[in-house]
Amino acid sequence: MRSAAAAETIAREQPGIDTDIVDYTSAAVMQRALADCAAVVHLVGILKETAGNRYVDAHEATCEALATAARANQLERIVYVSILGSDAASNNPCLASKGRAEDILVAGATATVVLQVPMVLGENDFASRALMARARARFAVTLRGASREQPIYAGDVIDAIVAALEPRVPPGTLRLAGPESVSRTELTRRAGRILNTSPQVVSLPVGLGLAAARLFEWISTNPPVTRAMLDVLDHDDDIDPRAASTALGIELTPLDTMLSKIGAPHDTRH
Known about the structure:
Blueprint: H1 4-13, H2 27-33, E1 39-42, H3 55-73, E2 77-83, H4 93-106, E3 112-117, E4 120-121, H5 126-136, E5 139-143, E6 148-149, E7 152-153, H6 154-164, E8 172-175, E9 182-183, H7 184-195, E10 200-204, H8 206-219, H9 227-233, H10 242-248, H11 255-263
Parallel strand pairs: 1-2, 2-3, 3-8, 4-7, 5-10
Antiparallel strand pairs: 6-9
Helix pairs in contact: 2-3, 3-4, 5-7, 7-11
């Protein structure tokens, strides 16, 4: 963890899990933290870059430190959860940074499985709450409703991580997603059907969002949204996930089942 507050949250919600507050960019600190580990799952990453939280620090620097620490401790395996579409050659700063981070780990001495995933939907998480809020609205406003989404269930991502830790899964990059790709408009309507609602989806040009993001970047060092962030969110996801799910030995949750799970009432006290 990077903060005492985060460690306290984990301790409160998941008692029995050991936590350690570390500097992810320090190889020496990471080496000490991983002294008793056989493998590591690397989840660190950011979607929005700010003046005080740069992509290079969150992605490349943490992977450099992890690769060095893993080699020193002779770890057996690294599983890195990344973003679908990440590529060092990408024109998007976030996807390019994630791609370079992937390359650092894959080129390292420790066997690494990279799991590239798109939008993840789980019970009572931010993305799911936002989707269900749109589905409940009479008018659901979204940017570029034709954009393709291929959400994957959070439980499937957990299954994929656990499977990727096994030696039977060869090192490399696996592009994983849900079993169905739909437009952002259709995803909102499908969620509405689960809730027995009929939202009217209003699609706005993504250029409007990019213009607003540019203004936010100009007037603030910590804008609520950035152009790179919007570009990632507007990425069209439409892949065949069967090769990855077969390699991992997992079954992907159908879209409507996923929406039913996240649309059900949940205990919000935790």
